[in-house]
Model the fold of this input.
Amino acid sequence: MLEPGDASSPRPLARDRLELRYRVWDGDGVLVDGSPDGGTRHLSMQWLPPGWAEAMQTLHVGAHAHVWVPPTQAYAGHPDAPQGMLVIDVQLVSLEVLTTKVDEVPLTSAPYNALRTSTGLAFVVLRPGTGTQHPRPDATVTVHYEGWTADGKSFDSSYDRGEPTTFPLARVITGWQEAVPLMVEGEKTRFWIPAELAYADRPSAPQGMLIFDIELIRIEP
Done:
């Protein structure tokens, strides 16, 4: 951290659009990207590689920081993007909240601007929540959801049943156990869950990568 910024200002969330002044170097010290000289650039949090987005969530408006992003949290898997470690000098000039429209987000594959965790879970926030607390891993939650297989076929939906579902997180697939604690009440997010975090080779269960739209209605007391 080079300058802390305004501690009274909000920190960016996954849905926000940022005004940045920045430079990006690859692991060899080659400058690969940056805002115009003397100017700024507006970027959505969802367009940043996961490590950079994670770092921005720790900064207040006005903060100036130097960030080292490991290869696995940079552009791994995107051969047309800079490879290896990224070194970023960044100043957060301002931010604004944006809401992603559902029809702007692809279904069968996570867009390259999706946020990703170290386990391979990818997600895009479709609607920001109003809550401030995240569910604990052992929480019981009430949700609406719809699930699709990797070819886009819907296999389960609480919306079709006309009522939300309540369950303990400890009883659902590993991907849900990781996904739901990332959310707050009122939030709706699309998750792409790798096969190993879903049903793996369990017979009669949907196979391969699964996609879920999850709406966290309530964290139960």
About this structure: DSSP finds three helices and twelve strands in the chain. The CA atoms of residues 5 and 62 lie 4 Å apart. Residues 102-219 form a domain with the Chitinase A; domain 3 fold (CATH 3.10.50.40).
